[in-house]
Every structure is written in C-alpha cells, then in structure tokens.
Specification:
This protein is mainly alpha-helical. The radius of gyration is 58 Å and the shape is elongated. The N and C termini lie far apart (about 155 Å).
Length: about 350
Amino acid sequence: MSDSLEIKTLQDRLDRVQELEELTENCKTQLDKIYKTLGWSRDYNREPMEQCPYDANHRVPVRSMEKHKASCSLRKMGYSAEEQAEMVDPSVCYENSSVRSFTMDKSTQHQVILKARAAAPLMRMEGVFWQGQYSGQPVDVPQNHKRAMCDLTVADRLALYDHVAGVFNQEKQAAASSNDDLYVDLVSKLQKDDQQNEPKTHLELMAEMRDYKRRRQSYRAKNVHITKKSYTEVIREVINVHSGELSRQWREEEDEEESTRSELSSHRHRQDERRSASSESRHSHSRRHRSRERSRDRESRKRKKKERDSHSPDDHHHNRKKKKKKKKEEREREREMEK
C-alpha cells in the first residue's frame, strides 16, 4: 500500500516538472516572437550593474547608483517613502550665496555629545545639564525635525549647536586674520625720508594711487548748479528762500490768532446765550409767581366778601382794616419783587 502511494507521488512530481518545462518552452517561443517582431536579439550589450553597499540583494545600474544609495540609506535608517518625499536638499539654495553650511556625520555627532557629557556635572544641578541628560549610544544623524526631536535630547541639541557655532566663529576669525594687511598703518610707512631709495611695496603703491584718486575727485566742481550761477543769482535765491520761510511763519501766526479769536467769540456767545436764558427763566418765574398771587388774592377777596355778608357791621369794619393792611403788604411785596 505504501509502495503504491510513493509511486503516485513520484509520478505527480514528474508530471508537474513536465508541465513547467512546457511552460518555459512556450514562454521562450513567445519571447523569440516578440524579439523578432521588434527586431531585437538576445545577444545585446547589457548595462553594467553594481551591488548596493547598504543591501547585498540590490543590484543597480551604475548611472543611478548615487540616487539609489541615498534612498536606500534613508530606508535602512527607518525613513518612510512619505518622509523621503518631503525631504529637500538645501545645498542647492546655498550654491551662489555667502551662506555657510555644515555637514554633520554620525561619528562627529557622537564625539561632540561625548565631549559635552564629559564636561557636564555628575549630579543634577539647577540651570545646568548633567551627564544623565545626554545620550550615551551613537545615534544616526537626523534628517528632519521630527527625528531630531525624537532621537536627540535637549542637551544633545544644545551641544551640537555650540559645536557648529564654534566652527563658524573659528572660520570667521581666520578670514579676519587674513585681511590684516588692510589695517596696516600705511601713513607711517609712506612718511619715509627722501634719501632712502628702498623699493615700495605693493600696498604702498596702492595707498598712493588711492590718495591720488581722492585728491583728484576733491578738486572737481561737485555742485555744478551753484558754480555756474553768478553771485547776484545766488543771493536772490537765498533771499527768496528766507522770505518764503518768513511768510510761512507769519501765516501760521495769523492762523493761530484767528483760531484764538474764534474760540473767544464762541465762548462769549455761549455765555450771552446762557445769560439770556437765565434772565428769561427768571422773568417767566416772576410772572408765574405774580399770576399765582393774583389768583390767590381773588379767592381771598371772594371768601372775605362772603364772610362780610354773613357778619355784623363791627366785624365788617374790622375786616376792612385788615383788608387795607393786607393790600398795603401786597403792594410792598410786589415792589420788592419788581426790584
């Protein structure tokens, strides 16, 4: 039973191999037909290939090896295709400009961090980074801001910044020291005795030529619009300028006086209006008061008349005296009100 099973499996394998051979033969015949129709041949010179230094399984043409190495190195460091698409090489922007750039590699970055860590204190201190805040293991140089924030600590970033700033300062000092010949005291060198027949240096000749050009320019007539005019024309322009300035000042003074006058007149007009309004209000108040007094007098007369009719002749005589006295008081009161 087992022998029959082995025979069947062997036969199946042989059949499958036969099918694969027939398939490959069919593919070859189809490729030959395609080459024939296109006019190609199998024996053509292929482009030379190279092996990728980052991945042994990658074989890339020589012409595209640099581009492949850049993308393959980023892929090995864990950068995705989207992150690689967002990356831009900034060196193109600094080709024709005076902006300096600095390229950091992994070993330099690690050495800078280790040096800063060795100079830091062992214990935690306020306001100073201590050794525990620096990274001890070497880290790949971050290619974007996100990786810089994740892979490097704050102390690492500060140490790298100080290192780059120090390198640029050294370059600046070196460039300044190379221009020391521009600050040489050439006056003392040029004031030599005529008897000395020493040959002049290149800097001394350049200084003499510079002084000569300056002297020649200083003697030129720079203000041609003034030198071509006569004395009378120049004085006339000066007088016109001064007279225009004086007339402007007089106009400003007159405008200020008119503004003050208008303000005073408006203030007086407001005061007169207030006075007239207050006098009218007083007169109207006095008139109302008089009319009220008169109406009260009429009512009092009517009452007295009724009382007189109802009382005796003696009472009438007494009331009459009171009435006269009251009239007299009312007249005196009206006189005082009129005053």
